[in-house]
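Dear colleagues,

For the upcoming journal club I promised to circulate an example of a predicted protein-ligand complex. I picked one with uridine-5'-diphosphate because it came up in last month's discussion. The inputs are reproduced below in full, followed by the predicted structure.
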Amino acid sequence: MIPCYNEEAAIESFYTELVRQLPDDYQFEIILVDDGSKDGTLNCIKNLAEQDEHVSYISFSRNFGHQNALKAGFDHASGDCAICMDADLQHPPELIKTFIEKWEEGHDIVHSIRTDESTIGKRKKYSSKVFYKILNHFSDVEIQSGMADFRLIDRKVLDQLTNFSENFIFYRGLFPWMGFRQTSISYVANERIAGQTKYTFGKMVRFASIGLTSFSVKPLRYSIYLGLLFAFLAFTYLIYAVLVYLFTDWAITGWTSLVVSIMFFGGINLIMLGVIGEYLGKLFIESKRRPNYLVAESNLNKR
Ligand code: UDP
Ligand code: MG
C-alpha cells in the first residue's frame, strides 16, 4: 500500500517501476491511498486503476496525514502479507523480493533501516538523528535510528492491528512494541523522483511529539524530578539568605537576580504545564473516539 499526498508528478513513474520489480510468482494488490491531495493525484490514481485491475484506491475526504493513510492501507489489505512504501521511489521497490524472502523464512514483521544518508537533505539527516536519540531516551520501546515506513507485515500482525483504535499513530514505535518475530534489512534511500517532501517542518515536529508521547510518560516524570531539583536549590539558597541576614550585618540585595529567577522559574513552570497539556490534549481528542480517516471515494467494494 502506498500513501500519496500531492504526488501527481511521481505516481506514474513510481507505478511503472513498482510493477517492473514485483516478483511474478505472487499475486499482488496495489492499494494507493490518496490522502486528500489538492493536485491531480486522484485522477492519476483512477487512471491507473482503470488500466490495471490490481490497483485499488482509497481517497480521503481531506488530508489526514501519512500514518492514517498507512492505517487505511492496513485496514483494507487482503493478502497474506502487506508491504507499505512511499510513492516517491525513495524506498527502492527492488527490496520487495528481499522482504518476501525474509517473510518466507518465518519473520512476521520485516523493517527497513535507512543506512546511507547522502541522498537525503542535511536538515532531514540531522533532525532525524537527534529525533531518534531523544525518542529512544524517553520511550520504552527500542526504535532503531533510520527506521522507515517501508516494511512488510504478516497477516496475523495485520489482524491484531485492527484491535488498535488510537488516533495518534506512530507505526515506527507501534510495530516494535507489538512483538512477533521481527527482523530488519538495510537500504540506501534514493533521491525523491519528483515533487517535494510532504513532511514540512511543522508536520515533522507534530510527528515527533506523537512519537514521544505515545510510548512513555517519562516526560511527565522528568518534570517532577526537575521540580524537586529546583525546589531543593531554592530552599538551600533560602537558608543561606536567612543565615546571612541573622549572622552578618549585611543583607543580600539584588532586584535583578530576583526578577531573573522569577522569570526563570516562570518559564520552567510554563514548559512543564505545556508537557502536561500535550498529554491532556491527546487524552481529550482520543476520548472522542472519532475515526482516523474518512473515505470520500474508493473502488475497493467494486472489486
Ligand atoms: N504523505 C501522505 N500524507 C501526508 C504527508 C505525506 O500520505 O500528509 C505520503 C507522501 O505522499 C509519501 C509518504 O507519505 O508517499 C512520505 O512522505 P515524503 O516522501 O514527503 O516524506 P520524506 O520521505 O521526505 O520523509
Ligand atoms: Mg519520501
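Two points we might discuss: The chain has ten helices and eight strands. The chain has two domains: 2-198+291-302, 218-288.

See you all on Thursday,
B. R.
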